[in-house]
Amino acid sequence: MNRMSWFNAVSLTLGFAFLYIPMVILVIFSFNESKLVTVWAGFSTKWYVELLQNEAFLNAAWVTIKVAVFSSTMATVLGTIAAYVLVRGGRFMGRTLFSGMIYAPLVMPEVITGLSLLLLFIGIGLDRGVFTIVLAHTTFAMCYVSVVVSSRLVTFDRSLEEAALDLGCSPAEAFRLVTLPIIAPAVISGWLLAFTLSLDDLVIASFTSGPSATTLPIKIFSAVRLGVSPEINALSTIMISIVTVGVITASLVTKHQVARQKREEQAAERA
Amino acid sequence: MRRFVLIAIPYVWLLALFLVPFAIVLKIALSDAAIARPPYFPQFDWAEGIAAFIAELDFENFVWLTEDDLYWKAYLSSLKIAVISTFFTLLAGYPIAYGMARAPEEWRPSLMMLVILPFWTSFLIRVYAWMGILSNEGFLNQFLMWIGVISEPLTILNTNSAVYIGIVYTYLPFMILPVYSALERLDGSLIEAAEDLGCSRLTAFWLVTIPLSKTGIIAGSFLVFIPVLGEFVIPSLLGGSDTLMIGKVLWEEFFSNRDWPVASAVAVVLLLLLVIPIVLFQRNQQKQQEAEQ
User: How many CA atoms lie within 13 A of B43 on its CB side?
Assistant: First the structure.
């Protein structure tokens, strides 16, 4: 169909307006001169300056990034192993329980995951702080990673691995030289997903963090509870821009890679 | 041997950090509220054996949940909010997904990205954005007063309406994506055939398009319904003191009242409430996979 009907055009316009207008307003008012978030009083970048001088926010941002880097990396390793075991591991004792434990955290309400982990940490006498948040985030993020990676493993041609084994690779070498490069895009998107999940998480972090470790979402939440503030708008704008640039870059890179792959395939066919 | 180690690493991790914590919640939910007064330190005396554990079981907390009507109301109101907001999300999401599936093919990847982008943006920020819009001197009231629909500002923030708006807004991508993927696969010639056979556009839509996109509608509805049931952030930021949702009750029971046994019992009941929709969702996904093969 070449021409869009007026109905489709209207529903798309309204739909995307609904999705984007709130964020556009948020960004515009981060540049507001006035302390009031809803009345425009002229352009100013003073809230950004204030934000960058606010030590509490900077500390929280640093903690959040640390937690996200560590937990997403651990989650990627554990999740990839879990996916490999699920798809290639064959039958083993307790496989049903294992796959259940992979899928259950995806639908588990965050308040329950947070509560249960907190009770565990207190039970074994672990001091709550950055380390416990990392443990908690790794646990729920590894399940997401393993779902992403196993969907790639299921579709990939197993004979490639078998050929490598026949040609004298050890299983570890076959994994490193054949399997890993093929599933790499899924592993990378799993890492990105784990990273954003960790950056974004408020509920689980609130349960598992102690007074020594405050993450950015916890900080934002406690500030926002008191009402809207232009500093939070400035912070949101920075976060929205980072995500936008990241997602657009990622999609351009994938597009480029797909195009290159197509060209190579065509070249191979011609030869 | 290597295979064993490979399986054991993620297995032990999940056992220790998912299953064991959950067992602790269950144990605390069943333990006595009196000794369990804060701070509660669970005792791990496995040596006592399972018989002693069973003898210790105490359903007092659950009985208490049924006696205090706050919890009844919270469960019912969570269910109500989840059902109504899933319906509105479908109502808002379906036309968008439909428009995307009918858009020129070269637009579709960009439209997809526009739907996915908010999903990567912080959930908290997207909820926060509505606080400035819905407040008494917010943009919505300013706009409505400017066009002359109302003369007095409406109170929307801190009511259930704000919670509905927030849920529809934040969960919209979860509805659009599965519905879109069902609609995109739909063969356009089927609709043409229906129209050739005398159906009006609307009847063709009702009799052909809707039934063929059923799997997408069901998947999207569960993807919205299940997380909304345990939602905490939206009711606590956009809702008022009379907005009862079970996620919020659990949070307050834990952080404000510091009543851990009751918080644990609330968690167990919430999970029981979720089992039915999760099983139904699993079934739907399986059916869909079988249909594809």
Answer: 11
Q: How confident is the model at residue A81 (pLDDT cuts 50, 70, 90)?
A: very high
- At A148-182, the pLDDT tens digits run 999 889 888 888 888 998 998 888 888 889 889 88
Question: Phi/psi at A43 (nearest 5 deg)?
Answer: -80, 140
User: Backbone phi, then psi, for A90, in 5-degree steps?
Assistant: 70, -155
The identity of residue A81, as a single letter, is: I
The two three-digit tokens of residue A24, written as one number: 């556009």
Length of chain B: 293
User: What is the identity of the amino acid at A64?
Assistant: T
Across the A:B interface, residue pairs with CB atoms under 8 Å apart total 229
B182-208 pLDDT, tens per residue? 998 888 888 888 888 888 888 888 888
Q: How high is the ipTM of this complex?
A: 0.86
- My answer on whether omega of the bond before A217 falls inside 30° of 0, hence cis, is no
Rounded CA gap, B164 and B238, in Å?
Answer: 9
Domain residue spans in chain A? 33-234
Measured between alpha carbons, how far is residue B111 from residues A16, A23, B73, B108 in Å?
9, 17, 41, 5
Q: Which of A11, A23, A107 sits opposite B99 (nearest CB)?
A: A11
Distance CA A98, CA B7 (A): 9
Min mean pLDDT across A113-117, A196-200, A260-264, B11-15 is at A260-264
SS3 at position A32: strand
Q: How many CB atoms lie within 10 A of CB A168?
A: 8
Identify the pLDDT of residue B293.
66
Domains of chain B (ranges, CATH numbers): 1-58 (no CATH), 69-292 (1.10.3720.10)
Q: Hey, which residues does B157 pair with through a beta bridge?
A: none
Looking at the DSSP bridge assignments, the partners of residue A43 are: A32
Closest-CA distance of chain B to residue A271, Å: 30
CA–CA separation, B3 and A260 (whole Å) = 37
Of B117, B142, B232, the CB nearest to A111: B232
Right CATH number for A33-234 from 3.40.50.2000, 1.10.3720.10, 3.30.70.141, 3.40.640.10? Answer: 1.10.3720.10
DSSP letters, A129-186, are SHHHHHHHHHHHHHHHHHHHHHHHHHHS-HHHHHHHHHTT--HHHHIIIIIHHHHHHH
